[in-house]
Give the backbone structure.
Amino acid sequence: MTYFAFSCVIALSYLLFRFRKKQRGAENELGRLRENIVRDERNQMRAQGPDLQDLLDALPYPFFSINSEGVLNRVNSQAAKIFDNRDILNRNIQHVFLDKKLSSLLSKSLSKFKAYRKILRFPPDSAFSSYGLDKDTHWEIDICPLSLQGDNREFQLTMRDITASVHSDQVRKDFVANASHELRTPLSVISGYLEHLTEEEGLDHKETAQKMLETMDRHVVRINRIVDDMLLISKLESDDSVPLNIAPFCIATCVKDVIERLELVIKRQGSTIEMKVPEIRFMGDQFYWTQILFNLVENALKQNPDIPLKIHINTEIDEDDNLKIQISDNGIGIPANDLPFIFKRFYRVEKHHSQSQIKGTGLGLSIVKRAVEAHGGKITAISTPRIETIFTIIVPQANKDIDDD
Ligand code: ATP
Ligand code: MG
């Protein structure tokens, strides 16, 4: 009996051992099957490509999908960013967009089931503003209706920020308008005088004819200067990177050159120029630096023909190892209201210029600014009228001549 019981225990243990072994085998097999299924699913997904939301999020512009009731049912990450990632899904566009022009365009598309493309302008305080408080944002809006299965309809709204191109278009238009305005004045003087001189007996009064010819000559010089300056500014503005002829040169040489060119005016006006210009060697385009210094010194002289003007020209390497150039004068100065605009093209301080005087076109300082910036530098101006007007240029030391010791 005891022997029988012992045999039974042995047999049962053996059976249990076999069963466990089989169970482990089955479990391993199941694991392998599961892994295969997951691998197959992954391969299938890879073959199908990324999911729709991933694709929409990869778009570089905002995308909204709207159902026929005007409810937002899908947006991409660029669109969510406009609303600071607030939850805007399943809400009506009228309550989300809060912009009359955009909402009415959408309503029109929804009711007529028609595609629309329009450029809309959004003020700085709008949700669709991308430029903070100082600039309107221009979006090109595209609304496209889609017919889905059954009677389902959906609308896709995409928006492209075209503020930069609208802005550069405006700059171009302003430039053409200003340039033609500036050229028209001297041209009309010349054509008026020519008409007079070519009339019968027009040349009889020699003194008057001589005066007219002199005035015409001055106006021709002006036209030439305007055309030269316009070519220069359009070259400087044509590209982000102005083609510079970079070579080592000495700023002192440019200053000498400028003083020589303006010597007659300096003497005639009884102005004095004080200079602290050490022999600093510098990497840059000498043509532009001569132009920069000429415009700044010429401005000081031109605006102050009737006072004993003192101009200071200082150059140094500052504590941050930048080249610092300062040109200052004690003349009539620039009113605080005009200071922010003097580097804009064609801007001239009105108080300084009477109609009869020819003093320039207002391109000089915009050329100066562009040329300094093309060298990686910055220019600023401060002015206390009749006490001191200072133009300061700072250029990084990357432009310092590497042979300089
Ligand atoms: P352009 O240089 O094209 O011949 P412009 O001298 O009038 O003409 P900018 O050099 O651009 O034009 O200068 C713009 C305006 O800034 C000048 O018209 C003048 O009113 C003012 N301005 C510039 N420099 C001085 C200065 N040193 N003192 C007083 N006003 C100045
Ligand atoms: Mg000038």
